[in-house]
Amino acid sequence: MSILIDRSGNRFLLTAGNMSYAFEVQADSRMINLYWGAKLDRADDLPDAGDRQWHRHCPDRQLESSLQEYPAFYGEYYHECAFKAEYADGVRGSNFRFTGSRLQQKSDHELLEITLKEKNHPLTVKLFYRVWPELELIDRWSEIINDADAPVELENFASAVWQLPPAPVDWRLTHLSGHWGKEAIPDRIPMTPGKFIMESRTGLSGPFAVPYFALDSGDAGELTGEVFFGTLHWSGNWKITVERDSYDHTAVFGGIHDFDNRIRLTPGEIFTTPVFSGGWSPAGFSGASQVLHRYQMRHVLPPAIAARPMPVIFNSWGCINIHVNEENILRAAKLATRIGTEIFVIDDGWQHALGDWFPDPVKFPNGLRPVIEMVRSLGMEFGLWVEIESCELASDLYKAHPEWTMRYPGQAPFTRCRADVDRTSVMLNLARRDVAEYLYRQLHELVSETGIKYLKLDMNCFVSSPGWGDLPPDQQGRIWIDYVYNLHWIFGQLSADFPELLMENCSSGASRADLAMTRFFGRMNRSDNQDALDMLKLHEGFTMVNPPRMAGGACHISDSMYHVNHRTTPMQFQAYCGMLGSLACGKDLTRCTEAELAEIRSYTDLYKKLRHVTNFGDFYRLASHREHPWAAFEYVAPDRSEAVVFLLGGSMQFADAVPPLKLVGLKPDALYEITCYGEKAPEGDSERQFHYHPVSGRGTANVGIPAELYGDFDCRIFHLKEARP
């Protein structure tokens, strides 16, 4: 069993893979954390609560308050709290007491339910712990139940609190920050006494931060060291607070943001918080990432999508932009099949307007059917782009339902003008259930009638003027929260209706990079910025949380990214960087020579040859472009019979050499044959060409494999295959 409860029913030891997590119920019925770290087999090995404190002069009440599994605002509690409410009698303190537990055995996990009752008011909080036996990860969330006959006002309602081990350690925090075009960049800071807050208030889960944290003692690397980490499954406003108190105790609080979210819980109502997953790895940051990758592949992603390799996609945005029409799309499709495209996608511009999800009658006078039939006759599947959360002022939808827009009472909706596409739009109030149901019907009809196999969701704005318009107060609700619940409902329904449909999560790039979206979307736009050199840093941060195969986008092989840095990169470098994730082409194929079309085809063929490893293998960040003029990434097949290694150079100087690449994860005693792609000696220097011979897994780890990079944007891919007797 993964969850052990002692005979008294007061001590709980949860074991997930090689990680254990434990807490106990004190004599006063408060729940105190005991342990989080490497696996323990016996509850008797757990420390006592008093052993969690190493400062002799720390007051007992400070210890008891700081270590609570779900601390509420009450009495002498002065730190961040997981729960705060105001009751009908004006009391704002909550004195929770443990009243029981329930253990459920599921087919692939165990679920522990803890019940807490407020001592002086009829309010219940249930804490849930979902333990995955094969992964060093636990899912946690809470339920808040109003048992009274009067409303309760909730001010704080965290999903969970993660208590760090009791050690006088100067914890180092790793978090992911950024902005449009520079999403999920790892930042590391020391945790001094005080609080550090990561948050989003955009109405989305990004892009200025990612709902993720990692804490280590300051010496963990990519492949070594103990790392504690977690991520929140929420696609709207969120907050994660890391607090180190004056007695060097550190805890992590996370959940839906309390800003502008005072919840009125009516009698009998149950409010469920989103999942906050927490894990542990003894194998550094790459080890922590692997836990999250396996978790998503096995338990989060749509099963039918997770089981399939990611296709080669051609997307019209990088070459035709919004100026799509039947003629140029058919011309592009005929060339796209020649480069090995598997899904042909029409991006923005095919629709009548934002809000009107049917073909523009001028651009497509015969509808989409001739295009779809042509694409399928060429051996490709078909896909479309949508942006459902906005509508144009010129749309039929806005004219029919102006009351569906998001706005404050008595005010006009906030408008956005995009000069690049000559469009003025407003946000739809997705917190309204009628709006959500309408959008679901529109998407269901679109997928059913067209038979598309790919749907790209975009969202090119943040939430503004979050009001319910002119609805009366008794019809108003929690707009920030209900918006997200309805968004999840739409795509949960759509995913269930069409389990084979590959959907891409795009929101001005990666503004919704959270695991709640991953339950429905098998591909994510890593960034609108698909400049190949920038990808080296973007991929590093993206894969801290997400499986590399999910790294999508439209323009990996493309000339359309020049505007980002005014940089031109070779097509081979673009393609090799694109192969780190899910390869896409957005190049104007009508301008390509026969030799260029053949070159692109060689890259898509190579991607297909390698993707059974890159899409399903364990992932390691071997070298960071933040520290070297190159980056190195390794993918190892689950059975360790193959590996694919990417060596991607930015700008080499002073004839500096690249040290041999020391690999990890291979069978020590097995021999591996090595094929190198992309290598060619500089003109007139054929002596520099390497000739690779079979090498053992132990040799790749201790000696490494040699490589050389020259000048700017040089790159290699190494394919290692176990030699068969």
What are the defining features of this structure?
725 residues, alpha+beta, 7-stranded parallel β-sheet, 15 helices
Verbal overview:
By secondary structure, this protein is an alpha+beta fold. The protein is 21% helix and 30% strand. The strands form 8 sheets. Strands 6, 7, 8, 9, 12, 13, 15, 16, 20 and 21 form a 10-stranded antiparallel sheet that branches. A 7-stranded parallel sheet has the order 32-31-30-26-23-22-33. The model has no long low-confidence stretch (mean pLDDT 94).
Short description:
The chain has 725 residues and is α+β, with helices and mostly antiparallel strands.
Overall number of strands: 39
Question: Helix segment count?
Answer: 15
Helix content: 10-25%
Unreliable spans are none
| Structural class category | alpha+beta
Rg value: 27 Å
Dominant shape: globular
Spatial separation of the terminal alpha carbons: 41 Å
The chain-level mean pLDDT equals 94
Give a topology summary.
Elements (H helix, E strand, L loop, with lengths): L2 E3 L5 E6 L2 E7 L5 E8 L21 H7 L16 E4 L9 E10 L4 E9 L4 E9 L5 E10 L5 E6 L2 E4 L8 E8 L2 E9 L3 E7 L11 E5 L10 E6 L5 E7 L5 E7 L6 E3 L4 E3 L3 E6 L2 H17 L2 H4 L6 E3 L1 H4 L5 H11 L6 E4 L4 E3 L2 E4 L9 H9 L3 E6 L3 E3 L3 H5 L14 E4 L4 E5 L5 H18 L3 E4 L21 H19 L4 E4 L9 H4 L4 E2 L7 H14 L16 H4 L5 H8 L5 E2 L8 H21 L3 E6 L6 E7 L5 E8 L21 E7 L17 E2 H6 L12 E8 L3
Parallel strand pairs: 22-23, 22-33, 23-26, 26-30, 30-31, 31-32
Antiparallel strand pairs: 1-2, 2-3, 3-4, 5-10, 6-7, 7-8, 8-9, 9-20, 9-21, 10-19, 11-18, 12-13, 12-15, 14-17, 15-16, 16-21, 17-18, 24-25, 27-29, 28-29, 34-35, 35-36, 36-39, 37-38, 37-39
Helix pairs in contact: 5-6, 8-9, 11-13, 13-14
